[in-house]
Amino acid sequence: MAMTTRIKDPAVDESAALSVAACLFHGFSDPSRLAIVRHLTLGEHRVVDLTEHLGLAQSTVSKHLSCLRDCGLVDSRPQGRASLFSLTHPEATLELLSAAERLLGLTGDAVALCPVYGTAAQEVQP
Fold first, then answer.
1. DSSP states along 40-99
2. Whole-number pLDDT of residue 1
3. pTM for this one?
4. Residue pair 120/126 in contact by the 8 Å Cβ criterion
């Protein structure tokens, strides 16, 4: 992916690279999914552990874990009758979350106040 490449490389399809990057960020766009990812930075967890820690319904956690697994962001391995879930690339995920926190700190409330994607706009959506 060449999302941050500064020099125009004819071998890179910039439109395709940006589309894939948008898909990645969409994977992190749901608050429940983001909470699951953040919690998995602590290590492996079962669905029941995540539901307990995050206060989310089992169906919600399972749905989001399935999405994250389909996106290649989460892996699972069997443990008895349950599955343990973990981040596929924990270091890179931590770097991304850290960069997001830095950027949010620099922009202050601007993102939350955005009329299109901010918190007030989300409350209006059906």
1. HTT--B-HHHHHHHHT--HHHHHHHHHHHHHTTSEEEEEETTEEEEEESSHHHHHHHHHH
2. 47
3. 0.82
4. no
